[in-house]
Amino acid sequence: MLLAQRLLPDEGWDDASVELLLHTLSSMDSNNFRGRAGTGEREGRVFSSLVARRHYYLAHGVDRSGDVAAVQPKAAGSSLMVQLANALAKDVLPLAGMRAVQAALILPVATGMSLTLSDLEAGLIPLVLANVLVGFEDTGSGGYLNTDLAGMAAMMDGSIHMTKLVAVGVAHVINNAYGVQASKCVHEIELAMRSGRVDAVVQILDKTSWCPSTPTLDFFITILQMGNRRLLNERKQVAGYMRMKLNAVAMEEGERVLHVLSNEISFAMTLTTLCPNVTNMQEVSRQLTSLRFMLFL
User: Which SUPFAM superfamilies does the entry mention (predicted)?
Assistant: First the structure.
């Protein structure tokens, strides 16, 4: 049911079953192939074996050309895992009451950044509004904080009516960070999605799905095992060795390694001899670009 229908299992899997699936998926990533030579920018190079084992060797980068939901050809297992995770997230939200959800996307960022990314994707420009203190008319004391809708109207050069905020055409990105387990919040969001325009609803995993924030722990483990000396010194030594060997290959093939004084990170080598008989520059570009997809075939 998981692979065929991409739905949550009725009964939770035991540890052995989950680990078997993860090991199977990781074996499909090119960085885990026998005899690999990971020289690309996202080839799953992990310094700490503890971190590698903790992630079941699912270390290859996913997405393509800025599309975080795209499939990465050289990381079939990781891409499948991401697709399945998004599908399961989409499956669980209707169970909580959000039946109008059309898609789900898990992002490795915190709530605020997720909201920002959602705003940018929807083409929205965030307006920061101050809260205003509203007093109780009967006693004149106490009160509560409310969003400054008058200030919003002034900033947007128009009038804002609470009853029309979910009207069709009014963009909405809803911060529902902790709200999945609150049926009232879910019900109101469901009504908003059915009656008007809701571009995105942001949830947070560590509170709603009991998932920890892992990058900090990964960094902590790695930096402890790497130590101060290996953090930079070894990288500089390896970079020099890389340039020397790349220069040797370039000279042997009639190419040259570009030397850019302002860039100490990247290495670039000309490929003028690979398409000597092709005169159309678009075709040359296509053939050269296609080479990176054949590196691990």
Answer: PLP-dependent transferases (SSF53383)
